[in-house]
Amino acid sequence: MNLKETHNLPEKVIFHIDMDAFFASCEESLRPELRKKPLIVGGTKEDVRSIVACPNYLARAKGVRTAMALTKAMQLCPDGNFIRSTRGLYSSYSKKVREIFFNYSPQVQPVSIDEAYMDVTKVLHLYNYDPVILANKIKDEIKNTLDITCSIGISTSKISSKIASKENKPDGITLVPFGKEKEFLSDLKVERIPGVGKAMLPKLQKYGIYKIGDILKFNREFYEGEIGDYSGFIYNVALGLDKREVRIEEEDRKSLSKENTFNSDTNDMNFLRRELNILLEKACFRLRKEKLLAKTITVKAKGYDFLVVQKSYTRPVYSNLESEMYEDVMQLLESVMKTGKKVRLIGIKLSELIDESEYIQEEMFMDVSTNKRLTENIDKLRNKFSFDIIKFGRSMK
């Protein structure tokens, strides 16, 4: 019998590390005085059309949530601190956090700017085969060096660790007893499953499904009929099953870009909107082929003088559908073309990419998924013939 067996360790031990109120925490680490009041990152009180990018925990206690309209957040926290996002700050902190992760394990898979999986199976012998000791060391180094906190879920699978990391936030550790994943998840609210939100919840509650364990009242075939897409996913969650591996960072694509250089310089906004939409369609088509989702959009324009202007926006949710990104893309175009000078190139970049399997969107469970099904059928035609076999009105002259 080897040491691993004597310590009752499973074949896999996986951490899910989730930074606590990440954007707000980064701002507070630079300006500790912001910790004294509810902090809402996303815009000042003058930015009435903005949405909340990240509230701190004082703001969350008053009901403020990510992606909430800023005007609603102002009603809930009239005396709170409202600030705009600091350019480059969060990606800088994210890079530093990842460097800390790699100090402890080579098997790290970032899945967004503020969360990552770690397979720590092969390094636990350095920590007396105790994953909680290792988790505390990681948490302490992040707190002591960056003055921000994280929460860590520990289990034998990605999904159980991800759900567990939310259990003791902020600054907490949750160990799911090995081999008891099903029992641990059973008593948790069903909305703790990624993707089960306000659209899906009533469907489940109609059948008396309020906790994850309640899912097992019915068989898989029932959910295939009632839910369709991803019915197998929620059923496997209830069983505590998830065989996905932690993929190392180098295997992941960082971004996807499309651009077009024109025959002559132009500032014709109708032309630029049309061209940019075509690039967006092509970029999203490629995302879907590679089964990826994006969260950050960057639009760039190169002027006649070869100077480049670019603007980025990080959406509150991931997507690979051009219909969901279109308005954001066009707003970014308006911003980069604000001076009205002629440009010779327009481009789009989709970044902060994750695998579809890492993120189950609530929209996938909605009855109004017609747009997604339509996109899938269009993709089939484009794969069979050519991309230009179908064109949308906004992409045509």
> What is the CATH first-level class name of the largest domain?
Alpha Beta
- What global shape is seen? globular
The CATH topology assignment of the largest domain is Dna Ligase, domain 1
Care to count the β-strands?
13
* Portion in beta strands: 15-25%
Give the radius of gyration.
Answer: 23 Å
For the largest sheet, list the strands in their spatial order.
5-6-1-7-8
Distance between the termini: 72 Å
Helix content: 25-40%
Notable traits:
single chain, 397 residues, alpha+beta, Alpha-Beta Plaits, MutS, DNA mismatch repair protein, domain I, DNA polymerase, domain 1, 4 domains, five-stranded mixed beta sheet, five-stranded antiparallel beta sheet, 13 strands, 35% helix, 20% strand, globular
Short recap of the structure:
The chain is an alpha+beta fold and 397 residues long. 35% of the residues lie in helices and 20% in strands.
What does this structure look like?
The chain is of the alpha+beta class and 397 residues long. The protein folds into 4 domains: 3-21 and 89-177, Alpha-Beta Plaits (2-Layer Sandwich), CATH 3.30.70.270; 26-83, MutS, DNA mismatch repair protein, domain I; 183-239, 5' to 3' exonuclease, C-terminal subdomain (DNA polymerase, domain 1, Orthogonal Bundle); 253-395, DNA polymerase, Y-family, little finger domain (Dna Ligase, domain 1), CATH 3.30.1490. It is built from 14 helices and 13 strands. The strands form 3 sheets. It has a 5-stranded mixed sheet. Strands 9, 10, 11, 12 and 13 form a 5-stranded antiparallel sheet that branches. A 3-stranded mixed sheet has the order 3-2-4. A hairpin with a 4-residue loop joins strand 10 (292-303) and strand 11. The longest helix has 21 residues, at 269-289.
